Amino acid sequence: MAVTVKGEKTREHILKASRKIFIKQGFHNTSVSEIISATGVKKGNLYYHFASKEDLGLAVLEDAKEEFFHFLNTSLSGRDSIARIINSCQAIFNEQKKNNFVGGCLFGNTALEMTDSNPEFASVIQEVFDRWTKELETLLLEASESQQLNSRISPKLLAKTVVATVEGAIMMSRVSKREKDLPDFLTAIKTLLDH
Amino acid sequence: MAVTVKGEKTREHILKASRKIFIKQGFHNTSVSEIISATGVKKGNLYYHFASKEDLGLAVLEDAKEEFFHFLNTSLSGRDSIARIINSCQAIFNEQKKNNFVGGCLFGNTALEMTDSNPEFASVIQEVFDRWTKELETLLLEASESQQLNSRISPKLLAKTVVATVEGAIMMSRVSKREKDLPDFLTAIKTLLDH
Fold first, then answer.
1. pTM greater than 0.90 (yes/no)
2. Distance (Å) of CA A41 to CA A9, A20, A37, B120
3. Rg of chain A on CA atoms, in Å
4. Residue B29 and residue A24: Cβ atoms within 8 Å?
5. Cβ of B164: how many Cβ atoms within 10 Å?
6. What ipTM score was computed for the predicted complex, to two decimals?
7. Are B59 and B46 in contact (CB under 8 A)?
8. Which of B24, B125, B172 sits opposite A175 (nearest CB)?
């Protein structure tokens, strides 16, 4: 039992430490020896938990996915559906600012680095984009039914566009490192949501 | 003279062939031997033209930048400013479809792979995003002055948002490989431009 708990903790530690390296420098550009030195875990122990670097990469994505949806659901708070969406975008942008616009979004990074070459990675990223879009769509449907939203485009398409704009905004602010870029993008999202 | 022309052609060939590999698999994930085998150029000849892989990567970006702005200016055609912007987004999306949503945007890919670690790469990407935004902003200012555009957000911010949405849309359609995603995003961009 004690061993299991310790094993769980080690696995968790490897996942979080590896995520930091993958966000910072990408998957291909990270060697197993760098992971070993960053985690302080012995090689045998690493391979006990993860069969390969691909296996670890996939587990890191799955773990980050769970954490993201927990974060999203917490940040989707506010007095009405539209405010909840705007607050969640704001919370995502705040995270970028907190990290000084370094690293960006693990899902976006991995989307561009891995989706053409690795269907398993692509499928987790697809799940993140789809579920995120779906959650926003549900809120936009509510807003639309309560006459709060009066957009010429469908809630589904609007939801997809918000996600694309957030991802594009993270990309562009990561390049510019300009603090005022993200509030600007938030204003644009508010306009898109007719807010 | 003949040597210079031949040298120019070789340089050009290396640039175009390397761009294809970098788009497909990223910069870090591409070895010099892969570049040599893809270009069919001898190692000595490659290093005659480019001092290092970084030097080649930077030249590939500069070359792609020139080509992109040529492409953009050709595609920015239409009966008025707003139609010109929409047609340019359509043309960019058509290129993605032509490539079966594989590869995506070299600038977006490099933005996420290299900007945190390589300031020279970041500076070329920044130039692409800034100049692209500026060209759209000029058109939006014209549209605004001629009362064709009636947006609550400034031409500058609107221009930046169109660029972010295009980049996010390329990212998402690259993951989904769904043909209908890009027309959807184009509809959203039209709405944003009040069209």
1. yes
2. 12, 15, 7, 35
3. 19
4. no
5. 27
6. 0.90
7. no
8. B125
Between A29-43, A177-191, B1-15, B31-45, the lowest mean confidence (pLDDT) is in: B1-15
- Could you write out the DSSP letters of every residue in A117-143? T-HHHHHHHHHHHHHHHHHHHHHHHHH
Tell me which of B114, B153, B165, B182 to substitute to probe the interface with A (most A C-beta atoms closer than 10 Å). Answer: B165
Rounded CA gap, A80 and A135, in Å? 14
Give domain limits for chain B. 54-192
* Residues A161 and B165 sit within 8 Å (Cβ to Cβ): yes
Q: Does B122 touch chain A (CB under 8 A)?
A: yes
- pLDDT at position B192: 87
Q: What CATH number has the domain spanning B54-192?
A: 1.10.357.10
CATH topology of domain A53-192: Tetracycline Repressor; domain 2 (1.10.357)
Q: Which residues of A touch B154 (CB under 8 A)?
A: none
Contact A192 B187 (CB under 8 A): no
The answer to whether A162 and A136 have CB atoms below 8 angstroms apart is yes
Among B116, B152, B176, the residue with its CB nearest the CB of A103 is: B116
